[in-house]
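Per reviewer request, we include the raw input and output of the structure prediction for the construct analysed in the revised manuscript.
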Amino acid sequence: MAPVPPPFTVAIAGGSGSGKTSLTRALVGLLGQHGCAVLDHDSYYRDLSHLPPAARAEVNFDHPESLESDLLASHLERLRQGLPVERPIYDFSVHSRTGSTRRVEPRPVIVCEGILLLAVPELRSAFDLRVYVDAPPDVRALRRVQRDIVERGRTVESVVQQYMETVRPMHERFVEPARETADLVLSWQHPPHELAATVMTMLRGRLHA
């Protein structure tokens, strides 16, 4: 009996608001719940419950050091070994982990989403396929404002302030340069199902090779 190959790992990176989540959902739709597992880098933000609320809001969440990337890297390795992991659950409204976790079982394909996946060397090297979703600054900014207000209960003023102070400069410093390390760069102008089909074509080619 032939040995079962380790899971194939896929990184979906790109700037905040570029369309990573939509692409990830489309990929899950093609691969199916039993064909893939999903990890998001955002779940691995460091727990800030030891800080007062005002201090938590001052943290630069767009810098690589704000994320526990070594934990994500270890979880990816465990999944590649066929072992389940307990993914943290992060509450963005209070900038802290909830204390609960979500069990993620190994699947043939592991899809991971996050703006800084390709900017952190130990994570970048953990992926078999590195995808970068490219979108212009105005599109990303507008999508970010809409998401943070609707999904995270933020005010327009706080979102704009954060974008100017940390999101934009960190994108230019870390996210955009990492684009050069991607195996596949996709344009936001195409609908998610078309982007997912392109990823699937390359995924099948890599798996066949």
